[in-house]
Structure formats: C-alpha cells, structure tokens
Amino acid sequence: MSTFLDLHVPGSPLLIPNPWDVGSARLMESLGARALATTSSGFAGTLGRADGDVTADEVLAHCAALVGAVTVPVSADLEDGYAETVEEVAATYAGAAATGLAGASIEDWSGSALHPMQQAAERVAAARAAAPGLVLTGRSEGYLRGNPSLSEAITRLQAYAEAGADVLYAPGVHDLDEIRTLVRELPRPVNVLLLPGMSIAALADAGVARMSVGGWLAGVAWKAAASAARAFLAGETGWLADAGRPGETGEG
C-alpha cells in the first residue's frame, strides 16, 4: 500500500489516467503513467451498457485483467461497492484485494440517492476492515448528484477519513477556491476529477495530490472512432491518416 500511497504528494500530484480495457491500460503504461485507475463508465461502455449497469463480479474480473496486464499500481472505481449491506461491502472489497489491486474507491451514492453520512462512513469502515492493504479512496458524490455543497462534502469526507479512507475525493468540484478549501480542511491527500477549463498547474499549486479523468479518455476514444466510422461509411478515406496503434501501422 505504501508504494502507491507514496505517489500522492500534495503540490506534486499523481496524474492517474483511466483506461477502460487491457489495451488502453498497456498503452497508458507505455506512455509513462505511474499508476492507473479504472473507470466505471468506460468499462461499462466496452460491454455496451450504461454506467452503473454492471455487476461486482464483472468489475472484479475486469480489475484482475488490468492488474495482470501492467506493472504499475492499479486502483479501481468500485462505485458504492455494488452492495446494500455492510457485509456485502466487505465481500466486494475483500474480492478487490484478492485481484492484486493497489487501491479502490468507495462512493456514497447508492444509484438512486446519497447514503446518509453515518451509514456511508460505516460502509467505508467495512471496506477498510475487509481490505487493509488497499489504498482506499472515500468519495463524496454530492456535486455530481445535484447537491453541490462544499460544507457537506467536507463533513462527509472528514468522516470517511476517520473511518479509514486514505485518499479523499469529491468529483465535480471545479472552483479553484473550493478546491483549496478542500485541501486545507481535509486530513488526507485530495484527488480531483479534471474537468474542462481546469489547469493542472493551478491544481498542483492548490495542493492537490492526485488528478484523474474518469471516463474522459474513453469518451475521446469513442468520439474519434465514431467520427472515423462515420467518414468510412460515407465513402471517405482521409481518416486513415490518423489510424494506428503504438508500434503498429494499423494493418488488420
């Protein structure tokens, strides 16, 4: 755990890209990524499903495949543990640890509502107890779920830190002053979801310890593929100039 956690340095953040399959994971490692994180939406897209429409078993198999394909640490987006009870949470995170993951996140969104804070903290504690070797990221989802309250995000994340979270994350926060407040008020390294208009340098200066991109990279790939396929089906060939993979010419 210490090796991965040691990469989280406030002011010198870990840039952690989010691959969606084995091929993209190997690509990102080859480009110099020091660690990787899965993306729930990106993985669901590979199955032709919407974000959240996957099972714990499918996600853990996906995590095991990525861990086996790269040499850098991998952290997993495990949503809310795909679980209703704390016992089910514990089973999910014990299973995550068994895949060889270096870390995993747990969020406080059930799929339909935010878990009450005390209940959410109990779920973090259950994940912590079941997987003591994982770098556990506690996530407060309010900004993504119609409740953009900085004070509530701070209170929740402080509770998740007390319950055992090693890294704290409120995806959707984008105001730099709010991010500075998060960093100042929270007792653990802070992860930020990179959004359009944000500056990596400014976030580093604010003391952020990790930056991730969620499903953005997968979205870029899907958009490029759709554009090329649309051109191909229209009888165009110019898109071929942009084709290929690292070390390959694109044949096949």
Annotate the secondary structure layout:
Elements: H1 2-5, E1 14-16, H2 22-30, E2 36-37, H3 40-46, H4 56-69, E3 74-77, H5 86-98, E4 103-107, H6 117-130, E5 135-139, H7 150-163, E6 167-169, H8 176-185, E7 190-193, H9 200-205, E8 210-212, H10 216-233
Parallel strand pairs: 1-8, 2-3, 3-4, 4-5, 5-6, 6-7, 7-8
Helix pairs in contact: 5-6, 6-7
Low-confidence stretches: none
Look at the structure and name the CATH superfamily of the largest domain.
Answer: Phosphoenolpyruvate-binding domains
Mean pLDDT: 95
Structural class given helices, strands, pairing? alpha/beta
What's the total number of strands?
A: 8
What is the terminal-to-terminal distance?
40 Å
The tally of structural domains comes to: 2
At the fold tier of CATH, the topology name of the largest domain is TIM Barrel
List descriptors.
10 helices; 2 domains; 43% helix; 8 strands; 252 residues; alpha/beta; TIM Barrel
Characterize the structure shown.
The protein is α/β, with parallel strands linked by helices. It folds into two domains: 2-214, TIM Barrel (Alpha-Beta Barrel); 218-252, no CATH class. Helix content is 43%, strand content 12%. The chain has an eight-stranded parallel sheet with strand order 1-8-7-6-5-4-3-2. β3, α5 (86-98) and β4 form a beta-alpha-beta unit. 41% of the residues are buried.
